[in-house]
Amino acid sequence: MVLTMGDKIIGIEIKASTAPGLSKGFWNSLKDLSITEAYVIAPIEGSFPIHKNVTVTSISHFLKQKL
Predict the structure, then answer these.
(1) Is the pTM of this model over 0.85?
(2) Which of the 8 DSSP states describes residue 38?
(3) What pLDDT band is residue 5 in, cutting at 50, 70 and 90?
């Protein structure tokens, strides 16, 4: 999923696993669309970074931070 917030493009991947894995397609999409901020929404508490511009987070944490 891709969200546009003002002039910023944010990538979102939604996973059911508490230890989400990301496909090559996810990384290709970030590159192809020039996305500099992405989130993996998973059923976890809190959030943690998995790459310099990709964070795994819960849906509630994402909504509180971004909306």
Answers:
(1) yes
(2) E
(3) confident
